[in-house]
Structures are given as C-alpha cells and as structure tokens.
Design brief:
Layout: H1 2-19, E1 22-23, E2 27-34, E3 43-51, E4 54-60, E5 65-66, E6 71-82, E7 84-89, H2 98-110, E8 113-118, H3 123-133, E9 141-144, H4 157-170, E10 174-177, H5 183-196, E11 199-202, H6 209-216, E12 220-222, H7 227-231, H8 262-272, E13 275-277, H9 280-287, H10 292-295, H11 306-320, H12 327-346, H13 366-377, H14 382-387, H15 391-396, E14 414-417, E15 431-436, E16 439-442, H16 443-456
Parallel strand pairs: 1-5, 2-6, 7-8, 8-9, 10-11, 12-13
Antiparallel strand pairs: 2-3, 3-4, 6-14, 14-15, 15-16
Helix pairs in contact: 4-5, 8-12, 9-12, 9-13
Length: 458
C-alpha cells in the first residue's frame, strides 16, 4: 500500500514538472478567464502564451512558464475571447484621404474587430490587405470584394463574365452583387463565378429573387435581402411596381408577408448552404423610431466627420418622411426581421456578424456591438450571438484551423473584456485591450488614439 502511494505521489510530481516546462513566448497574458467559443464554458484563471502571431499554450494560472523575458500582460481577472468580425464592412475608396482610411481601420480594431469583409472593393484594398497581413498597418485582417457588379458595370452578359474573370485574376476574395442586375446578367455572373471557383455575395437582384439566388449558389445574402419579398410572393405580386424607393429591403411588403412560411424559407436557406449577414443594426437605425438627433448624440459619433453625421441625419429624415413610412409599419417590419433571424438560426442556416459600417448611424466597430444586442433581441443567446462573429466566421472562411476559437496553435486574435459577455451581451464593448496577429493594443493606447480622432473632428 505504501509503495503504491509513493508511486502515485511520484507520478503527480512528474506531471507537475512537465506542466511547468517552459515554452518560448513573446507575450504572456496572465490572470484571465478564457471564453474559447468552442462551447459556452469558461476556462477560469488561465495564462495564455503567445509566440509571434500564434497561441502556443493555455495553462492554469499556477502552471507553465515562459523562456526568456516575454512581455507580461495583466488581464486583471477579465475575460479573453476571440476577436470579432465585421462581415459587412466598408473601407474608404482609393480617392479618400489616407489618414481617414487608416482611422476607419483603427475604429474597427479598437472595438475588437480583428477581421473585416470589405463589401465594396477597390484596387487600393488589395494593397491594404497585404499591408495589414505584414503588420505594416494597424488594421484587422482584410477580406475584400472587388468593385460591385451592377447594371451599369457592363453592356452585356459576356462582359459580365469577363469582369468575373478579371476580378478573380486581380486577387479579390469574392464578388459583390447589387440588386439592379437583369436576370440574364445575374445568371451569367453566377455561372462564371461557379466555374471559376470564386464566391459571389451581397444583394439579390429583384429580377432573380431569393429562390433563384439560393439555387444559383450565392454564398452570402446581406441585409436579409428579398426575404420579405419571398414571404409576400404568394399574393401574386412582388410589389415592385409599388416600391416607394427609399424604404429598405421589402419594408413596404410587410403587411403581405406570410409569417407561416418563415420556417420553410429558413430551411430552404439552410439546405442551400447560404449564409446571411442580417445587418439588423442598419435597419434599426435607419427606419427605427429613434429620432436622428438622439442617435447622433451617442458617444461614438465624435469619431466621425461632422458632415458625415449631418448627411446621416438628413437621410433618416428623408426616409421617415416618406408617405409610405409609419412608426407602426417600422415596428412591425423590424419584428418580422427578428423573426426571420431567429428562424434562420433555429433551422441551421449560417449567420454572420455584420452591421454595414460606415453607413447611416453605424460608426465602424461600434456598430457591431449594437448588432450583437439586436441579434440577442431577435432571440439568440449571448453565446449564440457571439458565435456569429467568431466561430461562424472561421467556418465561412474555411479557416477553423487558424481562427474562430481560442486554442493552442491558432492565430492570436483576441479581445480582453472587463466583464463577461455571456452574462450580458452589452459587456461585449467593455474592452480592456485587443490582440491582433499577436500584436497587443492596450486599452490606454486605444483611448489615446480615439481621443486624437475625436479632436480632429471637433
């Protein structure tokens, strides 16, 4: 018996020694609770070791050591989770002021957005993507479309096909579709893109509709475009001839929508393998009943040019002043969208986090945290909402081997939060620091940079 006890003690000692084996690390984040997003559990009291741009070890607080003299980051008992994504982002075009472009990229990063999907590409964005990857730019990872495909982009379907090939050869990640394409043009783009192996995403042309987009293999549908139209289709009219033009994404068809068909349409989406980027924040802000002057008083608006904020106020006033608009219609429409989001989730159709920024009352980075809250209001749990911007993004990008969760071997894209976002989704913006590709951006530096941007726009 004594011999067995001795052997057990020795085994425990050897295991303890092995766990104390030092690892090479440049940075060590201590005193944190890890939310890996590979399950809704929390790994409490952890130390995370980073070498270069990779996580090399996650250990209990009293286990593990680092070789040399790495930078030590006190997590302060906060919560460490994977970086978020903004999957309907906009990067200013090449003719914009370079300083403003870099401000926009920083605003994303300052809010824990470590990956953005640019939805209106420009040749400059290919350069920015490379500069970000090489850490020559303080920026999230950039995944970018090419210039948009719209009715004015070409004269015939053959030219549309050529544009698909040109954008693929240029190195864009995907194609951005607008809603004014003819069915012949859309089919040509879809066929050529599928043959070339490049995805096409964005809006759904009115000429095509939801069913055709799912059949054609459109990878993402943004803004829930054409879902309300599809729900209203059984009355024999798409309502296009009555579209007032300034009401967004089928809002004018809300009273015709057959809510009994929401589950069926969500299931069809799941079966097609299509992803949705709802951008609910855009619609809540544009057609919601909050007064534009009140929205413009949110703290984040100090980081945007004053003329931009004025344009946003004027745009909302124009939309809500349309004779087709009413607060009752807006509330019904927004609830319909929430019901669609929840059904898509319940039926297993992929959801991706995206808010459409910078866009009307959506300040880059900040708007994603509003989007998270709106997704929770639609019926998802905080954990499920956060998955849309972490694990789901990695699945969509086919990059789970590198991203989406906090695990050893993965890229060190992480957010340090002061409060637990799984308890209250509003804690997602309690940011104490951001790590992007192994680079540490502490909260005080974030605040200093934000203050400089605010002073510039006073």
């Amino acid at each position: 018996m004594t011999r067995n006890i001795l052997l057990l003690l020795l085994a425990g000692w050897f295991i303890g020694c092995a766990s104390q084996e030092a690892v090479e690390a440049d940075k060590v984040i201590e005193n944190v609770h890890v939310i890996s997003m590979d399950g809704d559990d929390i790994q409490r009291d952890r130390t995370v070791f980073i070498k270069g741009d990779r996580i090399v070890r996650i250990a209990e607080a009293d286990q593990g050591a680092a070789d040399g003299d790495p930078e030590r980051i006190d997590g302060g008992g906060g919560y460490l989770m994977p970086g978020l994504s903004e999957m309907h982002a906009h990067i200013p075009s090449g003719d914009a002021d370079r300083a403003y472009i870099e401000e926009v990229l920083f605003l994303y990063l300052a809010n824990g957005i470590t990956t953005i999907r640019g939805m209106l590409g420009d040749p400059l964005h290919l350069e920015l993507r490379e500069q970000a990857a090489q850490n020559e730019l303080v920026s999230p990872h950039i995944y970018t479309s090419g210039p948009g495909f719209n009715g004015g982009s070409f004269e015939n379907p053959d030219q549309a096909r050529q544009q698909v090939r040109d954008q693929q050869e240029a190195g864009y990640n995907f194609l951005k579709i607008f809603s004014d394409l003819s069915l012949e043009e859309y089919n040509a783009i879809a066929d050529e893109a599928n043959d070339a192996g490049i995805e096409f995403s964005g809006h759904i042309p009115s000429s095509a509709g939801l069913e055709r987009a799912l059949e054609a293999g459109q990878t993402t549908i943004d803004h829930l475009d054409k879902y309300v139209d599809a729900l209203a289709a059984d009355d024999g009219s798409t309502g296009e001839e009555e579209d007032p033009g300034v009401i967004y994404f089928g809002m004018h068809l809300t009273d015709r929508a057959d809510r009994d068909n929401i589950t069926d349409i969500a299931r069809q989406t799941a079966d097609a393998g299509a992803w949705n980027v709802p951008t609910q924040a855009l619609l809540e802000h544009v057609v919601g009943t909050d007064a534009p002057e009140e929205l413009a008083q949110r703290p984040e608006f100090q980081y945007m040019p004053s003329n931009t904020v004025e344009q946003w106020i004027e745009s909302k006033e124009s939309i809500t002043g349309n004779e087709a608009y009413s607060e009752e219609l807006a509330q019904d429409y927004l609830q319909l969208r929430r019901d669609i989001i929840k059904a898509l989730h319940e039926e297993g159709a992929g959801l991706l986090l995206g808010s459409d920024a910078p866009q009307i009352f959506n300040v880059p980075g900040f708007s994603v945290h509003h989007e998270l809250r709106y997704i929770v209001e639609a019926g998802l749990t905080p954990y499920e909402a956060l998955r849309t911007g972490t694990y789901n993004t990695a699945r969509y990008l086919d990059d789970l081997q590198n991203s989406g969760t906090i695990e050893e071997g993965k890229i060190a894209d992480m957010i340090l939060l002061e409060e637990n976002p799984l308890e209250d989704i509003s804690n997602s913006d309690s940011i104490a620091g951001v790590m992007y590709r192994g680079n540490w951006l502490p909260g005080d530096e974030i605040e200093t940079r934000l203050n400089a941007i605010a002073e510039k726009h006073e």
